[in-house]
Amino acid sequence: MKYIMFPLLTLLISISITAQNNNSPEAKAATLLKKMTLEEKVGQMTQVTMAVFAKGGWANEDGSLDPVALKKAVVEYKVGSMLNTTAHALPVETWRTIITQIQDEVKNTRLKIPVIYGLDAIHGQTYTLNSTLFPQNIAMAATRNPELVRQAAKVTANELRAGGVRWNFAPVLDIGRQPLWSRFPETFGEDVYIVKTMGATAVKAYEEDGLQNPTAVATSLKHYLGYSASRSGKDRTPIYLPEIELREYYLPQFREAVKTGSASVMVNSGEINGVPVHASKYLLTDVLRKELGFEGVIVTDWEDIKRLHDRHNVAVTPREAVVMAVNAGIDMSMVPADYSFYDLLIEAVKKGEVSMSRVDDAVKRILVMKYRTGLFDNPYPEPAAFANFGKPEYQQYALTAAQEAMTLLKNQNNVLPLSKNKKVLVAGPSAQSISALNGCWSYTWQGNDDRWYPADSKTIYQAIADKIGAANVITTTGKGFDNLMNYDAAAITTAAAKVDAIVLCIGENAYAESPGNTRELALPKEQEDLVIAAALTGKPVILVLTEGRPRFITNIEPSVKGILMTYWSGKKTAEAVADVLFGDYNPGGRLPFTYHKSMGEIVMYDRKPTEEIREVFNDNVGTGYDPLFAFGHGLSYTSFEYGDILLSKNTLSVTETLTASITVKNTGSREGKHTVELYTRDLFASITPSMKRLRAFDKISLQPGEAKTVSFSITKGDLAFVNDKLKTVTEPGEFEIMIGDKKAKFLYQ
Ligand code: BGC
Question: All domains of the chain, ordered by start, with CATH?
């Protein structure tokens, strides 16, 4: 009996596995692919922007579509994907109508392959009016709280999906090691462990367990690879990166996110060592596909295939550009404003310049993404998803995230918190600006148009007036960042006579991509003049810095008593600022980057020993790691004391785990959140070791007098680095662990 049953059972199991496999997205995609013509395949690889099929093109304001242009895109050119808005965010209902019209048009095609729509929801759903905007990644990194990243991603997925959109061009995994770079605020900062941790958390939250749910969206890891390292700091300008550095700081976060299972990757528009990444078979196929094992869709960034010809000048003709990119490994072209890619790729395939198997490979991946996102089951916006838009609790999530991002940089003689009974002057260009609190990708691409923000968005001036009563607040500013009256230093001098303290809100207005290019990081002189005027009044000055990257304040810092770094923390920035300034919230944010003193002092926290050393003969020009505020800096209204580091043992072997524990006590008089950070240092190694590297962090909350023990597990992988053979290795030897002001050593053997 046993012997008869066994083969029968095996047969049944194998039949059921085959049935399951036939049902898998891969199997379905393979079957569909067989039915497709070359034109249908190339159509799938083509992505166009809304202006191509909206009434009036780029001038469109209301999301109404041009039926003829839509038919041309969907039926004639068979495009597989669409993106973007025209001018600004649209109501969620309009998105549902747009997606419905597109999928209705799909019914007029031979194979009825649904279109996948993609949007840039990088800190909340950018292009839907009244969506919930969260802190930018740079501020999320300051929270050191992955749970907030998870929550923000979930809300964003819900609000995208509510409009019928299933593909998000996020998360940004670029690392912020070039503070001039205009996309610095989109990054999780200068440390690769933070970028890796927060990035993978976001991917998991967006995609859930495989994209089946109406609360999930496909992600796009961007911008692969090395985009943030532009030498000049200007967007999309040449990057020179030795591969050892590329692998140490720029690749690990992509490796981790690929493991987590992202559906797509968007490619860096720039060139590395003279090779545009869109033309790099090495980076796209050898590294991303073969080494990292990425199975999803590789999509270009905006117009980047054309630019191989007309900007990078590596392709002699536009067709050669298409051939180069597709053969390097590109699956989908964000063309995005015409159909040139479609025509040229068909021509190239017919001429044998691109093989049909490369096209099939690309199209299969696109179809798999469409199957996985459920578009073949129902391509329309789901009613259940609509109900997930704008839930009241999202406002609370946004507030918590903004509060946890607030980073108190200076608090001389405990000038903060301010008393609610005192009178304050709230001045500076950010005092009555909404856009300076939200930054890029906020209802418009640039985010700098206050008209599109939700009506209940508060300015810092309003939030403070709401907290301490309008009678206690005066301002010398007008609405909007650029309002001329905001720069009237004499007005501050006069107004200061009537108040006890000055809250001066300065920094940056919103910008995105190349419009955010800047010649220097020092704050504009007219803002420095405001600080000087305020300081000269003799009243305590508290700087509130609303900025996406560290703008140098070295000259003015000594003249102010308090500094609060707000970054661009989204919808609830103003409320969070008021909560911190007046003591309703105890700040606990930690800088996710080094706040440098000047361009001549750009040294990262994970510096090499020779950057650390201050040679006597040139000490006066500031060598070593000597920032204005160090990476990880952030004050609290309470104090924390660390016990000694306890190691589970003094040695670690290849297969073991070492536990490092430390007790942290709140020795102050109020409750506070605190991030315990564990750094390691490899004392001697074959490649000059960093002075410190962040390997783990844990955020805890402590009542006054309370103590908690935090434990971290360390394995071989946590101590690894890229060696001169470009291999990630851990070398035997002595290591130091640093937590707070405590240190301990162990031997890896
Ligand atoms: C940006 C991308 C973005 C794309 C689509 C490009 O200019 O670099 O980050 O996803 O536009 O909007």
Answer: 35-386 (3.20.20.300), 406-601 (3.40.50.1700), 638-748 (2.60.40.10)
